[in-house]
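Consider the following assembly input.
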Amino acid sequence: MSAGAVHSIETKNLNLWYGDFQALRNVNFRVRRGEITALIGPSGCGKTTLLRCFNRINERYGYVRTSGEIKILGQNIYAPDVSLIELRKTVGMVFQRPNPLPISVYENIVFGLRIHSPLFKWRKSVLDDIVEKALRDVFLWDELKDRLHVRATTLQLDQQQKLCIARLLPLKPEIILMDEPCSALDSEATLAVEELMLTLAGRYTVVIVTHNMAQARRVSHECAFMLMGELIEHTRTEDLFLTPKDPRTADYIEGRYG
Amino acid sequence: MTLLLVAPLVLIVGYIFYQALPILSLDFIFTNPKDGMRSGGIWSPLLGTCYLVLLSLAISTPIGVLAAVFLNEYAKDNWFTRMVNLAVVNLAGVPSIVHALFGLGAFVLFAGLGKSILAASLTLAIMTLPVIIASTKQALAAVPMAFREACWNVGATRWQTIRHVVLPNSINGILTGLILEVAHAAGETAPIMFTGAVFYKAIQEGDLFAYGPFDQCMALSMHLFTISTQVPGVPHALPFGTAIVLLGTVLMVNALSIIVRTRLRARKKW
Ligand SMILES: Nc1ncnc2c1ncn2[C@@H]1O[C@H](COP(=O)(O)OP(=O)(O)O)[C@@H](O)[C@H]1O
Ligand SMILES: [Mg+2]
């Protein structure tokens, strides 16, 4: 995968069908490297679907069909020689509901490493360092350093969500996709996660789906508006909210859609 | 509510135990039936039942669990899998006597195994297989999709996901289904009557390896049926004693599975 490119993600004429239902229509979307890009739009417009294309997790459902092109870091991810495993390491995802595995905090963080080198005997000190680094990166270390071996599913929801971000980091991802990462959190926890996102920008390319326009304004550099499977408008966040070009975008940000 | 559920169980077991009391002893377990089954113990049928249940489970568990994993985790939703699922559900409802006739035709006669422990175990395996598949599938389906997604998301393969997340989180349900099938296989008379069980056979007392796979054997369920309906003049306590041992065997397997479960849980680093 080539370095230097300006865009981390680039789709060309992307279409997606769930059975007979077309959920994405001719999406041409480019995400700038190292920035936070927000995807907004009414529920059911295909934001989650688009996000899940980027790590090809949609394919796990047998009835999904796609056409068009997706390039991640300049590499076509539908090319036959692409390794799904490498792709998923490069493109991490955070889900709407925090989904830590029902194992310890520690094991959650090293899970990916263990999966990828099942025969390698990791030295405990190496793993300890990795865990500490990952937890520090998401501001959880101080809270959790004495509770590394409690079951992750017993943590508070915002801690769980941060842990879900932390467990991606040891795999050294380039891109982190977040699907409404704060929708299960209260406002204080939401602000904390947003702050975390801002510190991740630069090091990682972040795409965040949100139905909360204030959040999109607060955290994103660029913002894209989707409607019924189409990408309507995509530009710098301040421009999208101050001077939307498309009347449908204007309607949406003024709250005229549900 | 709990009382309502537990009371009948305690009453039934208590009643059987009380009636069996005069006869229960180690001798009862370790001696063969004697005097035309009017006295002696239950060694021969007890060992027979253990053989039948263990062998049938050794056959049906791997096939059943793997089939369920395939159906739930790998198979796409197409006409073939739908047909397999339909077959599983329907086979689970087939009366055991039908399995018995199938076993007689397929294993005893066609495969040429004759009436033997092997043929009877295969028949029991066929009988328990659909239920094992169904219960295992249910246990797998109860594992939240979010766990699988979390796994795929860090690049785990399907098999790694199953091995590290799906199976550890469904093992309780899977074992519970298997235990129920132990009880089922131990309690059935019809499927073994035509395929490998005999009314009477004396074996070396206390020898755990007294039966070979091609021998015929006695079985507790059939023995209970025989002494309570076919033989006149059996002392009252004898069938109750047999029933208690049958129950005890099933309960012991239950206890064993609980131990296995706690062991498995202790091994995980939570
Ligand atoms: N797994 C699926 N199978 C079938 N249809 C789906 C599936 N997931 C989403 N859809 C449909 O695709 C459309 C877009 O859904 P989604 O991407 O979840 O929207 P959003 O995240 O913007 O709310 C919706 O109409 C939804 O009903
Ligand atoms: Mg969504």
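Chain A touches chain B through 35 residues (CB under 8 Å). Ask yourself how this observation constrains the way the partners meet.
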